[in-house]
Amino acid sequence: MGGLVFMAPGTEAARHTEGHPLLAIELDAGVFEAEVLRRHESGRTEWSCVPQALDLSEPHKLALIEAINGLVNAHATGPAAPSPTHDESRLLSMLAGALTGSVTGRARPVSVRRLKYLENWIDAHVGEAITLGMLCEVVQVGVRSLQIAFQARRGMSPMRFVAERRLTAAQRRFSKASEGDDVTAIATSLGFTHLGRFSSAYRSAFGESPSRTLMRSRQWARTHSDAASPGIGGGE
């Protein structure tokens, strides 16, 4: 896969290549269009003509392949398969970003108050599937304005901030976990579908593995439960 071709629903096309694989993904046209339009505060874009072919850089190509693989794994059968919701939104967001990447528009300032509102919104919805377009819609600005504002205020991209808040939410859940909870269930509920990378990011952020935080939480709960239990055989 070396590039992307966006085609309108119902379009038929022939493709002739030698030795190169072809992957076709059918998107919900309404959902995809909504994600694209959310990224532009004007609600209109200049790229609407399809079909449209785009070349991908190597990093973007690898990231897209990874997102596709994540979605395939999420739809795998079996009780341990995670919900595909986060993987679907991730792939949708990446495709929308590829299509609108060259259309940035003019950036306008975003107030600290509006950014704080957005950060609180992220915390309130951290367990849900979040896309860049949704963030733009919440504060009614375009992608470029939002990216500049987050870089200035937090030193990171909006979606990186979402990932950081999800790590913090994971730590809170591990610290309050019950005996039936485990690392995989908590991580996937917050959108972390690649557990190896999640564990590495968690250790980098908090200085210990997710399983260590979970184990300490359970030990603390058992200790305090034993201390709170009444003695046996007390006299009158």
Identify low-pLDDT runs: 232-236
Distance between the termini: 80 Å
Element order: H for helix, E for strand: EHEHHHHHHHHH
Principal-axes shape call: globular
State the helicity in percent bands. Answer: 55-70%
- Mean pLDDT, all residues: 80
| Biggest sheet features | 2 strands, antiparallel
Give a count of the beta strands, DSSP E runs of length 2 or more.
2
Given helix and strand content, the structural type is mainly alpha
Radius of gyration based on Cα positions = 22 Å
DSSP helix count? 10
* Strands side by side in the biggest sheet: 1-2
Our estimate of the beta-strand percent is: under 5%
Question: Explain this structure to me?
Answer:
The protein is mainly α. The chain has a domain at 174-227. 56% of the residues lie in helices and 3% in strands. It contains ten helices and two strands. It has a two-stranded antiparallel sheet with strand order 1-2. Helix 1 packs across helix 3 (85-100), helix 1 crosses helix 5 and helix 7 packs parallel to helix 10 (210-228). The model is unreliable at 232-236 (pLDDT under 50).
Brief summary of the model shown:
The chain is mainly alpha-helical and 236 residues long. The chain is 56% helix and 3% strand. The protein is built from 10 helices and 2 strands, in the order βαβααααααααα.
Topology readout:
Blueprint: E1 3-6, H1 29-38, E2 52-55, H2 58-74, H3 85-100, H4 112-124, H5 132-139, H6 143-154, H7 158-175, H8 183-189, H9 195-206, H10 210-228
Antiparallel strand pairs: 1-2
What brief labels describe this structure?
236 residues; mainly alpha; globular; disordered C terminus
